[in-house]
DNA sequence: GAGAATACGGACCGAGGGTCCGCTTTTCAA
DNA sequence: TTGAAAAGCGGACCCTCGGTCCGTATTCTC
């Protein structure tokens, strides 16, 4: 369990790789054509080092993703409203989905690489489980909506990386327009079933 | 433009490949581990033939998918209600989405292979464009719902192959339960915004 | 400062998608 | 019917890429 603490050259190289990969994925259009050898070269490191540090391609992607996700995660777990835990579910759900969308917009190629690129299903990751569980719980706390499990999946599916890419890529729809459209969609769903107000 | 008509051995081989691939993809758990060489071998054909007939892996997948989709497509374009064109939008939308879900359930590995496996975005395919356009138009014909473009994407996203696989795979949720959950979700969306009746 | 532990890196491997080209089959016009 | 050009065949071959291996270099510990 306890990590025996990394040697300092190992730590340095790990950071170098992370930085290099980060840069490469931002620069390149398609995540497919960033090769592991390239990442290693860009980081000034051998392939062996890269693979020892991250296990395999998926591991590198996951580490990168997790790193970029960190601030958002913090904001959700202990930040101020509307993302933080003090927000009532009815407002927090749209806020979370908006945040997810923005994250995908800001990290398009990386998100694509992780969610789509072969082999590993995006639904089997730990962070998807977190998002889904949180959303499900919030939904079930909103009166009038019943079971939140499927809706949570369905709403998250509306923010999937390749859909976002499809809608935002090539200068199709500007960021704000997309956010608005998603917001309207979510709102419509939340308003249904519970004609509480008005 | 005009296809110069295929030679008969070419036609025969094309069918053989299609059949072999169909069988292989049904048999195998993950689409990833059906190799092109394998397909060729199973069809009793050389790799060259396979690639000449379908261009590349994605082409083969597309052709297979299109073939399996054909009956459904016919039912939608000219069949009886609730899928056919005579159905009023309010009932046709749920019917279409249910049909999409069932199709994914019945063709899990193939759908996974096509939608997910690297390179080509599932959103750039011609058949996605058809589904989306149809759904969008229907939605916009339902009073009270405004722009149907994004909702059409979002609703279709709820039937994506890997999500379906995630929910149905490993004997998690039985077919009927999934259909019901999707139906409820769609219904909730359609009921909102337009408190027409009641 | 010595020895053990750990990490380095790039040569190497295997798999799989895709191509090439000499040979066979089909087609079609005479 | 026939013969030659067009179309197709197939599997050896190539190349890229993820991943491994191992002799060498660096770091840690005492």
Automatic annotation (TrEMBL), chains A, B:
Pfam families: TetR_N (PF00440). InterPro entries: Homeodomain-like_sf (IPR009057), HTH-type_TetR-like_transc_reg (IPR050109), HTH_TetR (IPR001647), Tet_transcr_reg_TetR-rel_C_sf (IPR036271). SUPFAM superfamilies: Homeodomain-like (SSF46689), Tetracyclin repressor-like, C-terminal domain (SSF48498). Keywords: DNA-binding. Residues 35-54 bind DNA. One of its GO terms (molecular function) is transcription cis-regulatory region binding. Residues 11-72 form the HTH tetR-type domain. This is Transcriptional regulator, TetR family.
